[in-house]
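Quick start: read one record
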Amino acid sequence: MSSKLGHVGWLSIALGFLAPTWVWAESAQYTVIVDDPRANTLRVEASFDLESDLVGFQITRSPELANGQADLVRDLQVRRDGQLLQIDGQGAGDWKVVGASAGERVDVGYEILLEHDKYGWGPGIDEVAYRTDEGLFFTGFSLFAIPGYDMPEGAHIQFQLPDTWQASTPWPNEDGVFVASDSVRLLRNCLFMGSHRTQVVDLDGFRFTMVLGGDLWDRRELFVEAMKPVLPAAKAAFGGMPNETNYLVVFNRGNRADGGAFLASYSMLLKGAVNEASSVIWGHGVAHEVIHFWNGHALTPVSQDEEWLKEGFTDYFTVLVRSRSGLDDTQHVYRKVENCMRRYVISKRVLQSPSTLQEAGHNKHKERMLVYGGGMLVGLALDVRIRQATDNARGIDEFLGAMFAEFGGGERYTFDDVVRIASSVSGQDQSEFFASFVAGHEFLDLAPYLGAIGMQVDTVVDEFYLSVSPEATEEQEAMRIAMFGH
């Protein structure tokens, strides 16, 4: 999934933009041009059929940039049959092409100012674009202008890069040309261009092309070990494979630890020591992003109302997988649950968020503590409720499997679907539970649920300490072991 084409220079710019000659006439065509590793801009030349009279970007919000990454676009030009057309900015990353209409083929050229690191981004810069000593990271959203949301013939992408550079992408490489089968796969993925090294790893039916920047290259085996137990565990719980089996993963150093999962790729920024001791942080992040291949991309909700499930249940299952496999010891597992309880109580009781878990999903990055912390606690509580109702025969694994069996093929699920499937798996009506703690404003006290699996909770305000209760029964211990492996 890597390729390097020799640089052919900026002749097209000097001539006022000439579209490249392509064999695949119906598909969208893109050429990404980097003239010099030190350049402050790159250029993209494209050719595609219009869906309307608009050309633009699917933007990522930034508090400093009204139009997100589209505000870093320079010298945008649109031509039809070689004739320069007038364009008018519409805001929100769109330009109106005056006198153009749907179905017409146009050639588009633009530069991108490589200054994304100067601005703040809602989801973090790891889901936008950044520069390292080795090259350039981009998401498709930040790199490619599009004519609309539908590209029935997909897109072909070429790179013209410095001699020492290569492009690593999640798309199939056909003789130096990358092929994205549709606009979703073009945009909802990440890539890296630079002098980086890559390693291809085959694990449990998956192929990962790993890009590891700087000193992280020497830690590559640690990342592989962190992924190994996640794949079979997720396949077993969800009952099948996600949409893709070939993935690009990009690890780089950053000012903060963060990560983002895409359709066939994921990126992570890491800060601080990367070793076995710190794997409780970065290893959790690796597992979380891998599980998103199932819960988040193959299994997707109708709306952001269900971000609590997408993020919170992914985090909860991450805790379970790392606990059951022994990657996290007992005390680290307890701390993770304590941290989520702390996030939840700070959000609900200290910051007094007015949002329900569903409402928080529409402002996920500002309501992170509620979405992730509250979502994970709902997952743990539901796990206990299902096990109590089924004499420990079923739990969250069976719930995720039932969800995937019905909606893993592409149909999106709703809140009502979640309630229905949880009730079916448990054999008990769960509507009041979800109405109170997800759709409603009631505070979810986790202590009774932890008590049901033989755990003691000691707390004061926003401090929580978990331990095994000395009064735990055999049945309670059996339930806890079934959940956490110990």
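The longest strand covers residues 41-49.
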